[in-house]
TrEMBL record:
<dbReference type="GO" id="GO:0009626">
    <property type="term" value="P:plant-type hypersensitive response"/>
</dbReference>
<feature type="domain" description="Disease resistance protein winged helix">
    <location>
        <begin position="359"/>
        <end position="429"/>
    </location>
</feature>
<dbReference type="GO" id="GO:0043531">
    <property type="term" value="F:ADP binding"/>
</dbReference>
<dbReference type="InterPro" id="IPR056789">
    <property type="entry name" value="LRR_R13L1-DRL21"/>
</dbReference>
<dbReference type="InterPro" id="IPR058922">
    <property type="entry name" value="WHD_DRP"/>
</dbReference>
<dbReference type="InterPro" id="IPR036388">
    <property type="entry name" value="WH-like_DNA-bd_sf"/>
</dbReference>
<dbReference type="GO" id="GO:0042742">
    <property type="term" value="P:defense response to bacterium"/>
</dbReference>
<dbReference type="Pfam" id="PF25019">
    <property type="entry name" value="LRR_R13L1-DRL21"/>
</dbReference>
<keyword id="KW-0611">Plant defense</keyword>
<keyword id="KW-0433">Leucine-rich repeat</keyword>
<keyword id="KW-0677">Repeat</keyword>
<dbReference type="GO" id="GO:0002758">
    <property type="term" value="P:innate immune response-activating signaling pathway"/>
</dbReference>
<dbReference type="Pfam" id="PF23559">
    <property type="entry name" value="WHD_DRP"/>
</dbReference>
<dbReference type="InterPro" id="IPR002182">
    <property type="entry name" value="NB-ARC"/>
</dbReference>
<feature type="domain" description="R13L1/DRL21-like LRR repeat region">
    <location>
        <begin position="631"/>
        <end position="755"/>
    </location>
</feature>
<feature type="domain" description="NB-ARC">
    <location>
        <begin position="101"/>
        <end position="273"/>
    </location>
</feature>
<dbReference type="InterPro" id="IPR027417">
    <property type="entry name" value="P-loop_NTPase"/>
</dbReference>
Amino acid sequence: MAEDVLEELEFEALRASRLERFKLQLLRSSAGKRKRELSSLFSSSPDRLNRKIGKIMERYNDLARDRDALRLRSSDGERRREPRPLTPTSCLTKCSLHGRERDKKQVIKLLLSDEYNCQGVYSVVPIVGAAGVGKTSLVQHIYNDEALRSKFDMKMWVWVCQEFDVLKLTRKLAEEATESPCGFAEMNQLHRIIAKRLEGKRFLLVLDDAWDESLVRWTSLLVPLKSAAPGSRIVVTTRSAKVARMMAFKIHQLGYLTDTTCWSVCRDAALQDRDPSIIDDGLISIGKSVAAKCKGLPLAANAAGSVLSIAIDRKHWETVEQSDLWANNEVIDHTLPALLVSYNSLQKPLKHFFSYCSLFPKEYVFRKDKLVRLWLAQGFAAADGESDAEDIACRYFDNLVERFFLQQSPSYDHNEQRYVMHDLYRELAEYVAADEYSRIERFTLSNVNGEARHLSLTPSETHSHEIGEFHASNNKYMNEPQYPGLRTLLVVQRTKHDDGRKTSSIQKPSVLFKAFVCLRALDLSNTDMEDLPNSIGELIHLRYLSLENTKIKCLPESISSLFKLHTMNLKCCNYLSELPQGIKFLANLRHLELPRIDNWNVYMPCGISELTNLQTMHTIKFTSDSGSCGIADLVNLDNLRGELCISGIENVSKEQIATEAIMKNKGELRKLVLQWSHNDSMFANDASSVLDSLQPHPALEELIIMGFFGVKFPVWMGSQCSFKLSFLELKDCRNCKELPSLGLLPCLKHLFINSLTSIKHVRRMLSSGDHTSSGDFQSRTAFPTLETLKFTDMESWEHWDETEATDFPCLRHLTILNCSKLTGLPKLLALVDLRIKNCECLLDLPSFPSLQCIKMEGFCRVNHLLQLPLFSQLEMLELRCHKKLVSLRKLQHISPFHSLRLRKELVHKVSGCEVLPFQNPSVQDSQKTWTFLRCAGQILECNVVACTDLTFGQTNVHSSEEEIGNGVIFHIGQDEAVELVSCKPVWVQIGQPEEVEIICID
């Protein structure tokens, strides 16, 4: 193709520029195989390109002659007719509204609420949701609800649809307002008619199926409505979250139905007013299975019900159940028109993006970054001068999400950016993709559609470990590419449960590469590939290469000739031992995904600094090898984004530190991990100097420092240089005697300090600093935004300074683990959750007036725990200590707990306790037998956990009050636990009968 030839010409230009730049290095390279490999990168074949250009010109001339002979015009040719959806009206199409009663109540409440009034005449209630989710049906029921009749003087319904012609829509609005046809063609006349008709009246207007995202056009349409009375309402239904946000702040999003509700919709469509009794239990079971395939979409459930209605018998229903629901013509006829409206509304680039999704199977979990990079490999997005191509592609992705073509997976956290596509949208993607995209389960070079430009292999569910053997049917394909038009080849896991499984076997990959020389994207992840052949270098158009979770040990030097490569994914390649020496030639590389630091053992050659376009490189490791990359390689990588972990910093000496900034200019980095691999006090001064030189950009949000063996942290950690820092972890910094002064960082929310074994004193700002004595410093609030604070394994820590009343105003969670010498805590007025473990010198707790939860474990011996009024808000107490508490005093004055958990050997003495107000007590004992005595006249509900030797005294625990008599005794054997749930007053007897101590639990 002409496109490929143009790219080859561009490639030759790139090759020539690389040769000119690195020819001196080439001449100096070592003799033998390495030199031959490097020089092969720069071989050229202009004669081959000349022949290709000649063939293309001949082909174009032939086509031009044929066009003239046939007298063809550009407008000739039959277009594919696409079905159009019916125009919805305000009339009810269904009597029932399954699963939407709550939505209906919420929207009606908004329409009738005075609190929803705005400063203007009307308020807008947007209802947003995917195509076919039931927005119009819901609004039809709301529009015709009796509760609204007396609240509005007028009701109007206008179907907006895609073509947002303000004049036509204004005419429709005038016809609704006057309830008569309108022949006026001038906007002014239409505005006057509408304004006059609405003057002084409260109206309800439904604008159904809105698409347009232009605020100017919307404002023009709504101008004549301002003559109406206050309290008027406009309901807008839309498939675009952007339109909804533009119309109002409060948005009602309509989600998918449950499988049970889907079955109700499906059943109604199947019955078609017939007697419900004709569907027996057997058919119900089949019907529910069919309804589950609809994935909560009412439109699909209606369509499935229509198919089932053809014959109410087991044979037909089983056929529908076992078939591909979306391949059924009647289902397609019911659902496709509505979905095509959504597709046709997309911009041209978005249509390419959506069609590309057809390469992935149903229930596939998408990663945003991966999909965007695959799109970029095909050239679907281009830089526009203000934004680069990747940022534009990300915006397009978000647009697909806003229009519900993709939706965030509920199984993943928002930060992980995982998305799924509804099965019906997946079918739409296949429909519009036609023959250009192909997805197969068994792959040989002979069964690939010759017209396909994008191909994916999805191992089948039944042969997931056998299918996917790549091989050539014979050797004739070794010389000429069999599919020169193929742009994408992906090995795709069927579901997230297959992630990480090696489901495909690759044979003769060199033949594979020769067959598809024009590939832009190649993904061989999760295959059993161990060696990458040199022929990979022939894929000169390649932009995206993923070898994730393969057994690759090394990469051939020929990979360094892939000058257009922008993504190389080597995550989870735990057998990989080194990167190629020529990786520095890949100047267009933007994303280099490497194994995580836990599995890191990859040699990185020097020259990484040449990759100035690099945005993603989560890990870089320095070694003592003179030929490996060093700290100087980081200087020019100012485009790095997201996360970066720098390990092996102990191999960086003070002399190697560059005078210019190393990390200061990397303003797109959000997380930085600095790791020393061993602790050597002999080089403590060097470590301090190196850490000082690694000062990050002020935009950094997360910082982790591990294994630092200097004695002092740099000043920049507590200065304005860390202005946006919200997360900080210091771990295994065993030589540091002072913590950094972090108290004035304005954005710090989470602070974790672990194994700083030389720290004895924690001050108000964590460190004394140079200015703690100044009046201004003392008057400032310490840690104004900190929410979580955790100290772990601080074996020398003895003292924590008192704080001011205004300090730690946001601190909610404090955890102190294995700090055996700590003697006290400061007052923390906002603290809600406290966890203490193995702090045996901590004898007293100060007042924590907001505390709701205490968990104490291990070696603890707090005196006078929980004294009034120190813990007036306490809701949950959990004690799992090895040593005995001195006393539990005056707990009867505390508001009722939600939960109490105790170990039996904890309670040594109970003083001043008549009533303990616990709602959910739980007692664990691993050594002695417990006895529970229940008072007469009180009802006890008990949930017993893991008790194999439980006996009852006078009666069963669930007996009535009369049967119980004077009480019931529980005998619980050794190594058992009992949990008492929702107890009314009950006496708990602790110890053996001859040494009884009593607690009354209420």
